[in-house]
Amino acid sequence: MRHKTYFTPGPSQIYYTLNDHMKEAFQKDIMCISHRSAAFQEVFAETRKNLTELLNLPDGYEIYFTSSANEIWERIIQNLVGEKSHHFVNGSFSKKFYQFSQDYQKTSTIYKVADGAEFEDMSIPEDTELISVTLNETSIGYGFDVEKIYQLREAHPNKLIAVDGVSAFPAIAFDFSKVDTAYFSVQKCFGLPAGLGVWIVNQKCYEKVKMLNNQGVVTGSYHDLLQLKANGDKNMTPETPNVLGIFLLGKVAADMNYRTAKMIQNETIYKSTILYQSIENAKSLKPFITAKKNRSKTVIVAECVNGNSELINKAAEKGWIIGKGYGDYKQTHIRIANFPVHSKEQMEQLADFLSTY
Predict the structure, then answer these.
(1) What is the pLDDT of residues 144-163, one digit of tens each?
(2) What is the set of domains in the chain, with CATH numbers?
């Protein structure tokens, strides 16, 4: 049976050191330890430490764990928005976060452009409490201009800014001091099994949830931000968490620190460059995102002139599992993950294949 390599954008290829870390987890009975034990406190603290180093988080930024990035959408709306958030939307996932605000009957606003189009109007309604930006729109391969996020910080120092980095961190360089909260899940760039979300918050977020509580706003229950903090200060979680996932995340983050974030980011740029070049040279493919500065470096999306089934099937014959398009683009797009686990050699082989299509 041919070995498969998964270029799907999540779940994706498992990180190459995971087998050794799983063996260590079994040897240490990680799946059996209590989340109130000293052993778990060590796991929690180590994972936080390794992630803080990898992401270069500023002082005062804390890390908490949830079941998924989707859960974090809900926690952000509950904990950080009294009435109104503002959402930049040009794909399915950024739209879903806006929908969460509607489900909670907030008076949130939306700036929606066509899928793949660039955001031109960066104005924000005066009464906005939180600005939501998707750094890497996984559904269509759109990369938000990082400098525009930094400009939002300069223009709106008193508003909270939330960044979705689900398929971006740590492969995309980012200055976390420019935002107040960010989040991701582990089944993409970190090459881990799904089932763990990572929520990063700063002191302004704590101040906001306290203010809402004082106003009588219900901000949640077991994953209220203040509950997460009360337990996190003791290197614990409110509930029995995905202990194995937290352990593995800490180990993979340590492996990535050994490589260094800078090396990972430089390799990501190189690999994305050759993939886009091959797509531009192909007769039956073209990049979905027109503006080069907005093409995602971690999820490469191409339109297939005659549909995607033939290409996906031919790639599968070689053992390469390529993602289909998302939503309305399921039959016409391909999505290729360019995550830290994918080597330069793998991407060069894939690029050669695509250029002849």
Answers:
(1) 999 999 999 999 999 999 99
(2) 5-13+261-355 (3.90.1150.10), 18-258 (3.40.640.10)
- Residue 293 burial by CB count (10 A; 0-12/13-18/19+): exposed, middle or buried? exposed
> How far is the C-alpha of 181 from the C-alpha of 154, rounded, in Å?
16
- Rounded Cα distance between 287 and 176, Å, is 29
* Helix, strand, coil percent content, the chain, rounded in steps of 5: 45, 15, 40
- pTM for the structure as a whole: 0.97
The two tokens of residue 340 are 């830290």
Question: Which whole-number Å values give the CA distances from 193 to 102, 167, 171, 240, in the listed order?
Answer: 30, 14, 18, 18
User: Distance (Å, rounded) from C-alpha 167 to C-alpha 137?
Assistant: 8
**Alpha carbon distances (Å) from 99 to 70, 74, 169, 310:** 12, 10, 24, 35
Angle, CA 54 vertex, CA 51 and CA 58 arms, to 5°: 80
CA dihedral 32→224→93→248, nearest 10 degrees, is -20
Q: Over the chain, what is the mean pLDDT?
A: 97
Contact 294, 145 (CB under 8 A): yes
C-beta separation of 271 from 7 below 8 A = no
| pLDDT of the residue at 222 | 85
> For residue 2, what pLDDT is reported?
58
- What is the token pair recorded at 200? 């990063």
